[in-house]
Amino acid sequence: MIGLEKVSKRYPNGHDALKDITLEIETGEMVFLTGHSGAGKSTLIKLIAAIERPTSGTIYVNNHQLGKMRRAAIPYLRRNMGLVFQDHKLLFDRSVMQNVLLPLEIAGFTHHDAHARARAALDKVGLLAREKAYPIALSGGEQQRLCIARAVVSRPALLLADEPTGNLDNEYATDIMLMFKAFHQAGTTIVISTHDQAAIKSGAGRIVHLDHGKIIS
Amino acid sequence: MKTWLTHHLQALRATLTQMLATPFSSLFTLFAIGITLSLPAGMAVMLDNATQVASNLPNPNEISIYMDDNATPADIKKLQTTLSTRTDIAHTQFVDKQTALTQISQQLGLTRLVNELPKNPLPDAWIITPADTDAQHITQLVSTLQKFPHVALVQADYKWSQRLDAILQLGHDLFTLLAGILAVALAAITSNTIRLQISTRHAEIEVSRLIGATDRYIRRPFLYFGALQGLLGGMIAWGVVFVSTQLLTPQVQHLATLYATTFSIQPLSLMQSAALLLISTALGWIGAYFAVSRSLARIEKR
Question: Is 60 exceeded by the pLDDT of residue B302?
Answer without folding.
Answer: no
